[in-house]
Amino acid sequence: MLGDVETRSVSPVFVGRADELALLTDALARAATGEPQALLIGGEAGVGKTRLTEEFIAEAGRRDAVVAVGGCVEIGAEGLPFAPFSTALRALRRRLPEELAAAAAGQEDELARILPELGETPRGPHDEESTARLFELTARLLERLAADRTVVLVLEDLHWADTSTRHLLAYLFRTLAGGRLVIAATYRADDVHRRHPLRPLLAELDRLRTVRRLELSRFTRSEVRRQLAGILSSEPDEAFVDRVFARSDGNAFFVEELVACDESGCRTGLTESLRDLLLVRVEVLPEAAQRVARLVAEGGSTVEYPLLLAVSGMSEDALIDALRAAVGANILLATPDGDGYRFRHSLVREAVSDDLLPGERARVNRRYAEALEADDTLVRAEERVIRLASYWYYAHDPAKALPAVLEASVAARRRHAYSEQLRLLERAMDLWDSAPDEVRGALRPADYTEVYPPCGCDPATTPLRRLDLLAEAVVAARYGGERERALKITKLALRLLEEEDDPLRAAWFWTERSKLVIGLARGDGWEELGTAQELVRGMPPSQVHAEVLAFAAGWGMLHQPGPENLATAERAVEVARLVGAEEVELNARLTLGSLVADAGDPAAGIAEMYRVLERATALELSVLAARSHINLSSQLESQGRSTEAVGVARRGIDLVRRYRLRDSEAWVQGNLADSLYSLGRWEEAAEAAGQALRSAQSAKPRGSAASRLAHLALARGELAEAAAQLAAAHEHFGSHDRQPQYRIPLYRLALGVAAAEGRILDVRAELVRAVAEGMPPGHQRYSWPLLLAAASAEADARGLPAAGAGRAEALELIRTQARTLAAAAPVWAAHAAYVRAELRRAEDRDTPADWAEAEAALRPLDRPYLLARARHRRAEALLAEGGDRGEAAAALRAAHGAAEGLNARRLREDLALLAQRARLALTEDEPPAAPEPAVDPAGALGLTSRERDVLRLVAAGRSNRQIAEELFISPKTASVHVSNILGKLGVTGRGEAAALAHRLRLFPRETPAQGVAAG
Fold this sequence. Notes:
Strand 5 (151-156), helix 7 and strand 6 (181-188) form a beta-alpha-beta unit. The strands form three sheets. A five-stranded parallel sheet has the order 2-5-6-1-7. A three-stranded antiparallel sheet has the order 8-10-9. It has a two-stranded antiparallel ribbon with strand order 3-4.
């Protein structure tokens, strides 16, 4: 529109970058096959990122791809939340209106946080999963749009990106798994200094194999020569090429500027100062055009034409003439959508802005702010508040800036841009003391805050306090993943509260600090929570009081179970009802239901939990409804009601997926895996545990998922996988928060791996540590399986040389601990019977009646794996005492059928060996084996005679040197035999080989006279 006086300084010929363009084109081809592509394009300012991107966009257009471009917007010192994504999605909405509407269907209100045109942005909910939920919805939206067409998203100037944009980009790069999608982001590499916030993101993305990163280098002399030829439309003089190359150092933009200066007769065209070079082209413009350039430089990355008209004070004709001159000189460009102007290159804008005098800059910002206040239609609605806040701040007017910054913080919160909210709140706190008293006095908590509950005051009439802002900042930092910053803010707030008599507000901050300490794995949070409880003790009822009590009851349930938690939960419910805090009341009632069930009244407790779930669902309290599904499915499993637990968990998964609560899904999937494991549906359990691991966003649900996978691997005899998942679980859980629900299963797994590898001393050490840390009430679900694993390990280790010493003490420890555990529920009564039988087997005193008792207790419970193991032991006991072979055969066949269905390798092997030794058939149609000739079990495993001799000595605990001496062979030959044995047995170490030999009874057990205690 304004190009008739344009001075050409851009080469029409695309110079160099052939390899880079080929890589980008290859990404287009890969995306067309349904493989999403992630690209980062970096380089110093002026090196040619924009030109390369333009060529890539043109090639994408030739291939019928839908291209959307969005740029990060620099407004003062902070970016506009989600600016490049909002712009790009807005472009996609124009190109694909029906398709985008269909892809966003049902989630318009949430997605409006990024694309406001989709509808009204809701006020909540706000929680630590809010941002992840929004990111997940955005990823699915893009995948749906790119399902049957290639979509290219180009995000420019990532070095100006706000924190939320950086986090969303990282999320997309990590999680996009399908669709014909290309996301390319550009950034200015020379701006990314050591402390630049983009630097850690680039390091993180470099570790992703799916992300390709291009760093553009400067032009060589030959490339500069080609660029000059394109600009000049003729071959340049070689001496001129030398001068321009030396002065520009191969920077493509500087080459263009030097040519433009040379052609317009700029005397400073080849001076030492590049800043002067950039400014001199502006200074040769008419005065009106220079003035407009200065206004555009201070207005932001892009300035809308109506806003520029209002700020300039010029007539429309005069403004257009000035713009025509600036555009003709290639200083300014019209934006692609035609509603505003920007500098052709940000280096020129920065130079012009830096050249403004301090008073001049403040005056320009004031004029922008006043224009926006006078007419709020001059810019997009979602941009107005943040830009107004920035303009008033840089106008150095605290009276105007403080309320504007606070309003911008509210807008950021509504978009789930919590990091931007935090920055704005910190700016408001910087302005606080500078703002006049009457301005501060007119501010109200009801307008700008929502996290600190009203306590005896009306938030609509009570003046806003600095502590209100600190409370908002703590929660914004926590929701934005900046827990360290949040912890520092709580420290500052509590220091300020030392000078005030405000115990409720102090208790609130101590409770927040407790959550942060737990989240940062700095401790269990009890010291902080205990301080909060002391502060509210004896205080009149309030919402803070109720929240502290509810959190304390939940903490105690998880960390220190006991009757005092029941009283705390009851008090929390009472206080919450008195003050009308229904959500707090429901949270406390959910905890109370679990505590009542653990205290011996499961019917009443579970009924209360169902009532809470129903109410939370009706009120659409998504986070509370998710917690209800998590706790209820766990409590049902603890009572042995596994089928019912599966139903609750599956309904919970539907709910958390609808609300995109990723961590909550991980917890529900983990509970589902537990119940499916109990029911013998191991393939489904493995899928649920794997999904839990994929869904988890934070450490603890990842640790829980890993422990479930380890449990399954151990039951199937996959020891290497079990050990690997156990190590992963330990890493995720850390060592600072030793909740019984985490640590007891880890002890049980470590004990099981040690037992399978024949390390009976390690089994005992794990048991001693587990007992020392405690098996508190309400954790029978974890404690009984641990004692059963320990008793089974002792029974299986009867013949191991190292097992004799200390066996009596270990068995007594198991008996003593079992007497402390409740066994009211049928499932735990069955475990108690099983443990008693295993303890008798460990002492060679078990009888078929012992195992019949355990089997009878298990039979009605739908626990196929435990039932199969009990049947195995009953058959073994029957055969050992010469009992009914038909009854033994029936028990073996039933156990073998279950083991086959579960793919329980170790149990299946044990059953096959017992059947082989007893000459019994494992299936109805299999004929009984002839009693003669006897088959050597070691030979059946493929061991040679010599290897059998070596294995016998390995099982007796001999070293390679001792084996060599006893068998008159060299230690090296003994080592070779041991290696061959490990391979044939499919085990990884000597201890595991010894354990297998004893478990399969390959050799007669040593007698007490041979140095092993009889037990």
